[in-house]
Design a protein that fits this description.
heterodimer, A: five-stranded mixed sheet, 19% strand, globular, B: 2 domains, elongated
C-alpha cells in the first residue's frame, strides 16, 4: 500500500525534529544529510500526484497483475461496491466467503495480531484482479505480517470466483471490492466488511 | 435575540455532523477557523472519494491544522475503502482537536468497520465521561451508541453486561427504540438460555421492525425448548421474509447477528 502521506513533511519532521541538537555546526551537518536523504528517498514520490482519481484507486501494474485481467470500461468508470446499495454481492452471500476461509486458511503460530486488507477490482463479468494488500497491528500502525499469513489470505482471496457483477439487473459495471481480515496471533478471527 | 443567535449558531455547529456553519466561527471571533471552514465548503458537489473533495479539505487543514471537521470529512473515504491506516490517522487528529464532537464517530466506526470492540468501547465510554448530554446514535442512525457498546461487550464475552446495558437503554422512557435493539437483546437472552425473555424481546422486535432474523432466532428458541413444529414454522417465515428483503442490511458491512439465506436453508434441511 502506497503511503504517500509519509513523504515530505513527515520526512522532515523525522530528520529535523530534534531540539536536543544545539550546535550550529552539527545542525548544519544534519540538515545537509537530511536534504540529501530527502532528495534520494522522496524524489520518486515528488513526481507522483498526491491523489489519483478517487481514494483507494489501484493503478494497473503488469508486473504485479499480469495481462489477463481487464476492465470492461475505462478506469474513470470503476465504482465502489457500495455505490449500488446492494451490499457485497457474492454467490451464496458473504457466508460462502467466510466458509471458504474457514476451510482453507490454516492458522500460523505467530505473535502477530491486527488487520489485513486486500483490495481489488471486480469487472463487469465478475472476474477479479489488481489485488493489493495492506496491514496494520491492533494499534492501526503499519505492520508486515508473516508471509505464511499474508500469502494464504492473498491466495484464497484470488481464488474466490463467485463475485457477482453489479448492479444485478442491467449494465453491469466494474467496481472496487475489498476484504479485511482480523487476525489474532496468526489465527483468522473475522472476515470483514 | 442575542441569546437566540448564540443558541442557533451553537446548535448548528456542535450537534450536527455535517458541514459546520462557518458564520458561527466568525461570530465567535475565530477568523482562522472561519477561513478554514470556507475553504472546506469548496468540496460541495464533489464525491467524497474524489481528488477535488480531498484537496478542498487539505486546503482547510493548511489554513487551520486544528480544524477537526476537515480531518473527519477526509477520513470517510478511507474508511469506506477499508484503509484503516489512513482513516485512523485522520480520525486521531480529529479527536485530538475536538474530542467531544468526534469520539462518537471514531468509536462507532471502530465497531462497524473493523470490529475493534475494545477500541470502540474505550471511545464511547470516554465520550460519555466527557459530556453531560445523551451521547446519541451511530452516524447511520441504526444504533444508539450504548447499544453499540453493549454489542462490543457481547463480542468480548461479557454477555450479562451487554444485557444490562441494553435493558437499561430500552427501559429509558425518553429513548426511541432502535430498529434492531430488541433483536440483539433477544439473541443475548437466547445465548444465555433465558428463553421466555428471548420470546418477549422477539415479540417486541416484531412490533417495531419485523425481520427474517427475529424469526430465525425465535426458531432456535423453539428448538431449545423442543417445539419442533414451531421451530419449522418460524424457519419458513424467516425464509420468506429474507427472500422478500425483510432482513438486516447495511450497504457497507455485515451487522452482528445477521443471518444469510444459506443459514436458514441449512437449518430447514437438517430438520427433514
Amino acid at each position: 500500500m502506497k503511503r504517500w502521506r509519509l513523504s515530505g513533511k513527515r520526512c522532515q519532521n523525522v530528520l529535523f525534529g530534534s531540539s536536543m541538537i544545539k550546535s550550529r555546526i552539527v545542525m548544519k551537518t544534519v540538515r545537509l544529510i537530511g536534504i540529501l536523504l530527502l532528495l534520494m528517498g522522496c524524489a520518486t514520490e515528488k513526481d507522483k500526484p498526491k491523489y489519483l482519481r478517487w481514494v483507494g484507486d489501484i493503478e494497473a501494474d503488469p508486473e504485479i497483475d499480469g495481462e489477463v485481467f481487464q476492465l470492461c470500461f475505462s478506469e474513470a468508470r470503476v465504482k465502489q461496491y457500495f455505490n449500488f446499495s446492494q451490499g457485497m454481492q457474492y454467490d451464496g452471500e458473504k457466508a460462502a466467503i467466510v466458509e471458504v476461509f474457514r476451510q482453507d486458511y490454516e492458522a500460523v503460530d505467530v505473535p502477530q495480531s491486527g488487520w489485513i486488507r486486500i483490495r481489488f477490482i471486480v469487472n463487469c463479468k465478475g472476474e477479479s484482479g489488481r489485488f493489493r494488500l495492506s496491514a496494520s497491528n491492533t494499534q492501526y500502525q503499519a505492520q508486515e505480517f508473516d508471509s505464511r499469513v499474508t500469502d494464504q489470505l492473498l491466495s484464497i482471496t484470488q481464488s474466490l470466483n463467485g463475485w457477482k457483477p453489479l448492479p444485478d439487473s442491467k449494465d453491469p459495471r466494474d467496481y472496487y471490492q475489498y476484504l479485511t481480515f482480523k487476525i489474532e496471533d496468526g489465527a483468522l478471527k473475522e472476515v470483514l466488511p | 435575540m442575542r441569546l437566540f443567535i448564540v443558541l442557533l449558531l451553537l446548535g448548528s455547529t456542535t450537534f450536527l455532523a455535517a458541514q459546520p456553519n462557518c458564520e458561527a466561527y466568525k461570530y465567535f471571533g475565530d477568523e482562522l477557523k472561519y477561513k478554514a471552514c470556507k475553504a472546506a465548503e469548496k468540496r460541495a458537489g464533489y464525491y467524497q472519494f474524489s481528488r477535488r473533495y480531498q484537496e478542498a479539505l487539505d486546503e482547510a487543514i493548511a489554513i487551520d491544522s486544528t480544524f477537526a471537521f476537515a480531518y473527519r470529512a477526509k477520513s470517510t473515504a478511507y474508511l469506506k475503502s477499508g484503509d484503516f491506516l489512513e482513516w485512523k490517522y485522520l480520525m486521531d487528529k480529529a479527536v485530538k482537536f475536538d474530542p467531544t464532537a468526534q469520539l462518537d464517530y471514531r468509536g462507532w466506526c471502530r465497531y462497524q468497520f473493523f470490529r475493534d470492540y475494545q477500541g470502540a468501547i474505550d471511545d464511547i465510554e470516554l465520550l460519555d465521561s466527557l459530556v453531560e448530554y445523551d451521547i446519541g446514535h451511530s452516524v447511520n442512525g441504526d444504533y444508539h451508541l450504548h447499544i453499540a457498546r453493549a454489542l462490543c461487550y457481547k463480542a468480548l464475552g461479557k454477555k450479562e453486561l451487554a444485557i444490562e446495558i441494553i435493558e437499561g437503554q430500552v427501559q429509558d422512557s425518553t429513548y426511541f427504540v432502535g430498529i434492531y435493539d430488541f433483536l440483539h437483546l433477544g439473541v443475548l437472552y437466547l445465548e444465555t438460555e433465558q428463553y421466555d425473555k428471548a420470546l418477549t424481546a422477539f415479540a417486541r422486535q416484531e412490533q417495531e421492525n419485523d425481520l427474517a432474523e427475529l424469526h430465525y432466532y425465535r426458531a432456535l428458541v423453539h428448538k431449545a425448548t423442543s417445539d419442533a413444529e414451531a421451530y419449522q414454522g418460524e424457519l419458513r417465515i424467516a425464509k420468506n421474509l429474507y427472500q422478500e428483503g425483510r432482513k438486516m442490511f447495511d450497504p457497507y458491512v455485515e451487522q452482528m447477528d445477521k443471518i444469510f439465506l444459506s443459514t436458514i436453508e441449512k437449518a430447514l434441511v437438517a430438520e427433514r
